[in-house]
Amino acid sequence: MRAGNTAGDNVFIGLTTALLVMIGILVLYPLVYVLSASFSSPEALMAARVTLWPVEVTLDGYRAVFSTNRILMGYSYTLLYMAVGTVIGVVMNLVAAYPLSRPDFKGRNAIMALFAFTMFFSGGMIPGYLLIRDLRIMNTMWALTLPGAVNVWNIIVIRTFYQTNISIELLEAAQIDGCGNRYFFIRCVLPLSGAIIAVMGLFTAVGYWNSYMSALLYLNDSSRYPLQLVLREILIQNTQSTVNSFLADAAEQDRRVKMEFLLKYGIIVVSSAPVLTLYPLAQRHFVKGVMIGSLKG
Amino acid sequence: MRMVTRAATPAARRNAALLSAKKELVKNWDLYLFMLVPICFVVVFNYGPMYGAQIAFKKFMISKGILGSPWVGLTNFQRFFKTYTSLNAVRNTIIISLYSLAAGFPIPILLALALSHSPFPRFKKIIQMITYAPYFISVVVMCGMIIQFLKPRTGVVNILLGLIGVESVNFMAEPTWFTSIYVWTGVWQGMGWGSIIYLAALSGVSPELHESAVIDGASILQRMRHIDLPGIAPVISIQLILSAGGMLNVGFEKVYLLQNSINVNYSEVIQSLVYKIGLKSSGTPDFSYATAVGLMTSAANLVILLTTNTVLKKMNQQTLI
Questions:
Q1: For a Cys-Cys bond, which of A147, B136, B201, B289 suits B235, CB 3.0-4.6 Å?
Q2: Which of B38, B129, B217 sits opposite A283 (nearest CB)?
Q3: Average pLDDT, stretch B149-174?
Q4: A25 to chain B: nearest residue by CA?
Q5: What are the CA-CA distances from residue B120 to residues A214, B23, B59, B258 (Å)?
Q6: Searching chain B, which residue's CA lies closest to the CA of residue A271?
Q7: Do the Cβ atoms of B45 and A131 come within 8 Å?
Q8: What confidence tens digit (pLDDT) does each residue in B237-257 have?
Q9: Could you tell me the mean pLDDT of each successive run of 10 residues in chain A, 297 residues long?
Q10: Residue of B nearest to A217 (CA)
Q11: Which chain A residue lies closest to B223 (C-alpha atoms)?
Q12: Which of A126, A137, A262, A267 to mutate to test the interface with B (most CBs of B within 10 A)?
């Protein structure tokens, strides 16, 4: 205990610790449950016998998940959209943020105002849809990756990072050596941007990983659906043709209903495990991103 | 001599300013080149739809395009205020967003306060890692989990309720449950992540203040109240403005996924209505009406944001504008 804590403080700390433990359990339990359920037998699930640990351990659920390539196809399209979108987004926001961080860049307030206004006002879903249609990029990956490429919030975060991390002295020294803006950006600014590129890349990538709305709006060809839309068909809409494609083996109706329940837990695990297991490794970067963002709201 | 210089000043100054501006332009021409593509993107993808939003005041016909369609004035807006479904959507939107704000706004602050005073660093780290995790679950999976968990009899919530002797409830088929399900699952998913920003702000509160307060015999609770809260007030204020500004956009993605034919009376929000009228309708989609509804939402959001900003400014808090 910290010196100077009163008896009342110790009680208080005891209470908040108990509360934090409870919150931890409340958050963790559903995650553990999904994992356990995905390894349990469909019969145990339907008989409501799974409460914490797997019952009658089986891999049937995972066999069903990988019995067709729908999930893998979804994964590969998501990775494609994610990779393209993240690269475009990060490059775009870096080159936009650097000039805006320079005090000697004339007109930066006007440009910033032009950008910032879009954070608080938008034309809306339908005009956005009509625009994508008129640009003739409907049903292509550009419809998913280009409209959100310039992210004003990220630009503000990167700009703040540059303002605090790239000193004027460095620029002046470079300019005395006859180094122009382009070379300064490529040779000096970019090498110092590792941390912010990591942060922005992670945020953008997770954003693409999770999003389904723009794909729902702009893709009509279900063979190009990203993972989240495939998941939607199975988990939310219960589209029978899709569900059945996973359960071709389970012939009789009764077995099928049970397997469907198990399949969903398996699918939840398979689709969330990569991000959930990787995020603790990158937690430091995510937290840093939120913190730089909070410096200048 | 002095007189002459002074007389020449305005013109000379203007010239000098123009010259220096020109010099800046020439010197930094490549910085403008940097900005070119991002500016084009913003103009096309953000301001483009704003231009297209004029169809809210028109009777949009695909064959005639945005410019060629005839003006109809405020007809589309009037229609909105005359239909039951849209007024009901406004009502649901306000209820859901106020409920979300009331539950989802203070909890991350309290969590951050509790964590920051925890004397066990390892325990603190573990709780942080656990509570951040749900943020990385996608909306679709989250809603899939909610639906699985709330199934009557076989869902884990009902299994646990059964253990303490409560009858199984078919939550998703009871429309009145919708709002609470939406809000509390949102708290579950977002509280840890939301607390990061407050933890960062709390780490910026000067430790000397705490030390001298301890010497004066202040309890932890008193220090939270009189040192921590005032210390993070600017961040709280900014966060409040930002969440107020997005109020009418209530997590449409999640609402849409949790919506079913039974709860639609409670779950239809403005954005889901726009989607249905504009893009999902079985007949001819009414682009103009849907755009009008969307435009009103955007405008109302802006007004709410500015109002919150003004109120907080009057209260001498840190504000956005």
A1: B201
A2: B129
A3: 89
A4: B130
A5: 44, 58, 64, 39
A6: B141
A7: yes
A8: 888 888 887 777 777 889 989
A9: 65 92 95 92 84 86 84 91 95 93 88 89 89 92 93 88 86 85 88 88 88 90 89 81 70 75 89 87 79 61
A10: B279
A11: A9
A12: A126
Distance CA A59, CA A70 (A): 18
Give residue A252's pLDDT: 67
- Each residue of B198-212: pLDDT tens digit? 988 888 888 888 888
Task: Give long-range contacts, CB 8 A cutoff, 24+ apart: A129-132.
Answer: A129/A217, A129/A218, A129/B278, A129/B279, A130/B49, A130/B52, A130/B55, A130/B66, A130/B287, A131/B44, A131/B45, A131/B48, A131/B49, A131/B52, A132/A217, A132/A218
Residue B101 Cα, gap to closest chain A Cα (Å): 18
For residue A255, give how far its alpha carbon lies from the nearest alpha carbon of chain B (Å): 15
Compare CB distances from B136 to A1, A261, A276 and report the shortest one's residue. Answer: A276
3-state SS of chain B is CHHHHHHHHHHHHHHHHHHHHHHHHHHCHHHHHHHHHHHHHHHHHHHHHHHHHHHHHECCCCCCHHHHCCECCCHHHHHHHHCHHHHHHHHHHHHHHHHHHHHHCHHHHHHHHHHHCCCCHHHHHHHHHHHHHHHHCCHHHHHHHHHHHCCCCCCHHHHHHHHCCCCCCCHHHCHHHHHHHHHHHHHHHHHHHHHHHHHHHHHCCCHHHHHHHHHCCCCHHHHHHHHHHHHHHHHHHHHHHHHHHCHHHCCHHHHHHHCCCCCHHHHCCHHHHHHHHHHHCCCCCCHHHHHHHHHHHHHHHHHHHHHHHHHHHHCCCCCCC
Partner-chain residue, chosen from A8, A261, A271, that has the shortest CB–CB distance to B219: A8
- Between A130, A279, A287, which is nearest B196 by CB? A287
Predicted ipTM?
0.86
Is there a contact between B93 and B270 (Cβ–Cβ < 8 Å)?
yes
Measured distance CA(A135)–CA(A17) in Å, rounded? 56
- Indicate the pLDDT class of residue B5, thresholds 50, 70 and 90: very low
